[in-house]
Q: What sequence folds into this?
């Protein structure tokens, strides 16, 4: 995963233009998954799961979407970790940006969530809270 800082609308447009080919490939892949779903219903797609650093399969369905659309942010649930796309991305970004050690103190403003559960299982000093 590559992380880019965007400080203005012009920066955003420049970034979109610079990565237009890659963004098109991603949109086409999402459309391919959607087309397959429309033909077959729910299915598993192969891919790489960052939190476990290995190949896995991901459930493709229309939960939180519609009969014609897949909610790519909230679905693509890894069958091994049970984590959705958004949470796996959060873990990936957390790892890349902060490079935490296993014994670092981590505070998260939730504690009844799959993200908290994953952090608590993988780091020694995790504190969560709920409002």
A:
């Amino acid at each position: 995963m590559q992380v880019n800082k965007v400080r203005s609308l012009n920066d955003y447009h420049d970034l979109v233009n610079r990565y237009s080919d890659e963004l098109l490939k991603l949109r086409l892949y999402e459309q391919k998954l959607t087309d397959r779903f429309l033909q077959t219903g729910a299915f598993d797609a192969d891919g790489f799961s960052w939190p476990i650093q290995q190949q896995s399969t991901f459930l493709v369905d229309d939960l939180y979407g519609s009969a014609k659309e897949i909610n790519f942010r909230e679905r693509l649930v890894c069958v091994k970790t049970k984590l959705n796309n958004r949470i796996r991305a959060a873990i990936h970004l957390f790892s890349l940006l902060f490079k935490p050690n296993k014994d670092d103190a981590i505070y998260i403003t939730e504690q009844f969530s799959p993200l908290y559960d994953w952090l608590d299982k993988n780091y020694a000093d995790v504190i969560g809270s709920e409002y």
User: Anything to note?
Assistant: Residues 9 and 108 are 30 Å apart (CA to CA). The radius of gyration is 17 Å. The longest strand covers residues 43-49.
